[in-house]
Design a protein that fits this description.
The chain is α+β, with helices and mostly antiparallel strands. It has one domain (67-344, 440-673). The protein starts with a strand and ends with a helix.
Length: 691
Amino acid sequence: MIQQDKPQQKKDVIIVGTGIAGSLIAKLLTDHVFDTQKGKMIHRAEIDEIKTYKELSVLMYEAGLEAGLELDSVSSMTTYNEYIRTFYMQEAKVPNSPYPNLKQAPSPDVLDMEPITPPFPDKKGYLVQFGPMPFASDAIRIGGGTTLHWLGTTPRMLPNDFRLKEKYGRAMDWPLDYDILKPYYEMAEFEIGVSGNVSKQEYPISESMEDYYGKDYVFPMEEIPQSYMDQRIIDGLAGTSVQLNFENIPLTMVPSPQGRNSTPNPAYGTSKIIKAESSDSGYTLSLNNIENEEYKALGSVWNPYMGERCEGNASCVPICPVQAKYNALKTLKKALYKVNKNDNLQRNPHIQVQAQSVVYRLSVDQADKDRISKVHLRRYISKEKTDFIEEVIDTSDTIVILAANAFENPKILLNSKYTVIENGQKVEKTVANRSDQVGRNLMDHMVMLTWGLFPEPVYPYRGPGSTTNISSFRDGNFRSEFSAWISPLDNWGWSWPAFSPGSDISEFLGQGYFGAELKEALADRLSRQVLFHFEIEQLPNPNNRVTINNEYLDVLGIPRPVINYELTDYEMRAMEQAKLASDQMFARLGVEDFTKYNATDNNTFIYNNVRYSYNGAGHIVGTHRMGSTPEDSVTNSYCKSWDHPNLYIVGAGSMTTLGTSNPTLTLSAVTIRSVESILSDLENNFKTKKK
């Protein structure tokens, strides 16, 4: 180890993480400059070439390799193609399989998960799992973050998801409601480039769909066509209901909005910018049309003409081979490259990305209103060696933004201790943790899978991973008794639960099938495989948490995340009800049920004398939640720490509850809204420095 207080010019903003949250903030901030004459932030589109402006200086840290951040065309394509080749060679096609799993910046991997026998932890992988149940989701520490391997499904949360306490006496209400977040959802849908059909969306909500989306609102791109398999299931279930909890629930199947390129929607109009307007109360972001510039699908980061349309490769998890699916590198590139006066892309010299840099601790300046005064990181030299350089960065005049995933953000905070004097006694505190909520309320969607054989061929694997969801169970009075859920129809046959087609080949070979007979048996089975998927909401539980323990360190000497996790009766009963719903739908469709949950499954339990098993959805949420008061939350509704005036903590960990939607769109909307507060703080900083 080499100790180094790194001399450098002070930065206005330091962002930890280059995933979607960090990239959105970097892009939106660098789209604005400070007008020194007017004393306010303005968008680049308003720049007067005669005047001079203060550019924002931004430094981003990424724990992963530089290779993932090489956004020039040649190296970007080379790196991404290497990911694809790695994916082809991996036996297990799990979410992290294409990407480097670094010993200096390890990632949680589903292949590392094992059953837990309390009090002994499962410490095979990066996570140290004390259970009593395994946390079943992974993430990836890489340039662009987990959006490199997400599915890309982008439904919004429902109005009641923000007020579970008020409506159902459960959990805790958000400090904002759906109507406040609605314009930021529109901004997130623009930035991600969402494909979908607003007119076909139908949810169990009291609001009209016109009120929910807004009059005449459309997604930027037209709907990705629903698969043939989906159409056969829709035809078989149309107009029917399932009986649950003494209630008849009609089945509603809608095409899923998703962050992948299709045909730009002419009704969406021109392309847009997200622009800040100042007022006495601060800044407000809004979408503004760009005249005479049509909306275009954004292709790959190395070639805008590659990946302009989804090609239906069905490998969305873990990798889209053409980058038709959105990933955060597309947004990051917009921060790193700006259009100059000649309409050419030019590298923005005011933003720097430093890879192979693991931020692990923050320091506090008690003499200056508990401001974050230093960022501590370990920069490793190469992916082969464990040598590192210790760097300490002065942040006394800087806004610090933690934008890592919901494991890493709380891990950094919990590792950041400082001492204060209270009533003449030394008291140890933890950064941003006055509420004792840092690391608590870890949530995920428990994924219960059911699978079977359709009576006729439906041909899975044609198209993206999922194009339809059953929205009927996303809300209802039953939420006072058990979880809501959404049910995507998965387009992957039995690959997830039963490792098809390899397991089918093995089974038929074991039965003596060979040649034409083997081919015929495989064609019959694989073409009829259907997979139903129940993403079950988990409530915030303070005992489900991320902690740290100096007994469990990585190779850089940084604490690993220690996980305590379990399901409650509320979630287990939802699994019971979801299986009842599946049984009724399978019976109506004539599907032969092959679902089987085994005692040898890593993540299994008995409920009412029946065995169930769950998987993770990769929706890691809730470990630094926002709230209305500093007593029960880590940040305010703008993701600003209650305890430290120059610290923001953004990402999925800021979500108060989970709802039934994939969290990426919501965390993006919340992150975009946080930029309004960051711009106000920057304005104040610049005015203070000027004085």
